[in-house]
Design goal:
- The complex is a heterodimer.
- Chain A is of the alpha+beta class.
- The model of chain A has no long low-confidence stretch (mean pLDDT 88).
- In chain A, a hairpin with an 8-residue loop joins strand 3 and strand 4.
- Chain A is 40% helix and 37% strand.
- Chain A contains one helix and four strands, in the order ββββα.
- Chain A is elongated and about 60 Å long.
- Chain A has two domains: 62 residues, no CATH class; 43 residues.
- Chain B has a single domain, classed as 3-Layer(aba) Sandwich (Rossmann fold), CATH 3.40.50.1820.
- In chain B, 32% of the residues lie in helices and 22% in strands.
- In chain B, strands 1-2-4-3-5-6-7-8 form an eight-stranded mixed beta sheet, sandwiched between helices.
- In chain B, helix 4 links the parallel strand 5 and strand 6.
- In chain B, helix 3 packs across helix 4.
- Chain B is globular.
- The model of chain B has no long low-confidence stretch (mean pLDDT 95).
- The chains are: A alpha+beta, B alpha/beta.
- Chains A and B meet through strand 2 and strand 3 of A and helix 2 of B.
């Protein structure tokens, strides 16, 4: 809170805390003095469930450079995954086409 | 200041109590005082951004050990209960606690301490991190404190873009209203507050002829008192604490008004 820099976004997914899995609905990303990380400043990420209460939280403190690396890794993973999904959709549409033709001619 | 002797008696009481907060709220507070009838000076502690945690309980007892009636109210109480870290994360995500609420909370604790029969009618305010900022703010917006200590409070200096409904005015803009002497302890390697921001604050204090002492420590960053964090700096912390004791002794340990 010494910088006041915080960005919040809605998220959908699950997180695993000490008491097991729970549904996530918010991510809070701050740039501030960390509680535990060995750095003067850190990117502090809290993955939260507003409905489940404050103890349902996944907390991460990253150095700014490692946070950038994480962002790149997330974006690269999404990019490769979505490309794979598009390829599979194209393949399935090619396979589907003859079936559609046979059905039409019968 | 506590003068140690091997033949002295020492005792204190420390416990959680409730005190009035802003807008008729009731806050949990950690309270510690020396045993005996006093009269003792009082100190209100404003906890830091990591929350109402063990360090603040320890520090409250530390003040009692040094002869002060001390209280640390939970200024995050309106956000619910849980571990200090989890509640602090919730407060962080919600953009902090409103300045007006903190001023009201501190007024409630001040009135409580001064009402005690052990009080010498003098009171100081002490805070670290966001609590340091708030200690200065409260000392400007509240009458009744006799000395204030701001330890590395960030965002005393704020840009227009940083102002929000919760933080509508930069604390530095209240400097002309500062109602008591101020001690500021800072780290040269801190970036919130940066040395430039500390210098700007100091210029404002000079401009209005305020009584203050600022000390900026080399080879120290943010939170150099916190022995449980990587920013701890032993030499600077020992010297800083000695400055706190000397400052409060000077302004709080006499009953006559200066």
């Amino acid at each position: 809170m010494c910088t006041g820099i915080v960005e919040n976004t809605r998220v959908s997914g699950s997180g695993k805390g000490p008491r097991g899995w729970f549904l996530l609905d918010q991510a809070s990303v701050s740039y501030d003095h960390p509680d535990h990380a060995q750095a003067e400043r850190a990117v502090i990420i809290d993955l939260l469930s507003e409905t489940a209460g404050p103890e349902s939280r996944i907390a991460v403190e990253l150095t700014p450079q490692s946070a950038r690396n994480l962002v790149r890794a997330i974006l690269a993973s999404i990019s490769r995954g979505e490309a794979m999904d598009r390829d599979q959709e194209r393949e399935s549409s090619v396979i589907d086409h003859p079936v559609f033709s046979r059905t039409k001619s019968s | 200041m506590q003068k140690y002797r091997t033949d002295m008696y020492e005792g204190m009481i420390a416990e959680t109590i409730t005190v009035p907060g802003h807008d008729r709220t009731v806050l949990n507070a950690y309270f510690a005082r020396p045993l005996g009838s006093g009269p003792f000076p009082a100190v209100v502690l404003i906890h830091h951004a990591p929350g109402w945690d063990e360090w603040y309980r320890e520090t409250t007892r530390k003040f009692a050990h040094h002869g002060y009636i001390a209280i640390s109210p939970n200024i995050y109480q309106q956000f619910g209960h849980g571990t200090p870290e989890d509640i602090a994360a919730k407060v962080r995500a919600m953009g902090g606690v409103p300045d007006d609420d903190v001023v009201g909370d501190m007024r409630g604790s001040l009135d409580y301490l001064k009402s005690l029969p052990q009080s010498n009618d003098k009171a100081g305010i002490f805070g670290t991190c966001s609590g340091g900022r708030q200690a200065f703010l409260v000392a400007c917006r509240t009458k009744g404190f006799d000395a204030g200590v701001d330890c590395w409070g960030g965002r005393v200096v704020m840009s227009q873009q940083e102002l929000t409904p919760k933080y509508p005015v930069a604390p530095i803009d209240y400097t002309k209203d500062l109602s008591c002497p101020l001690l500021g302890l800072f780290g040269e390697e801190d970036q919130s507050p940066s040395p430039q921001q500390v210098a700007q604050h100091e210029q404002e204090l000079k401009k209005y002829g305020k009584t203050y002492e600022f000390h900026t420590y080399p080879k120290a960053g943010h939170g150099f008192f916190y022995y449980d964090r990587s920013g701890y700096r032993q030499e600077q912390a020992v010297d800083g604490w000695n400055k706190v004791w000397a400052f409060f002794e000077n302004y709080l340990e006499t009953s006559d008004k200066r």
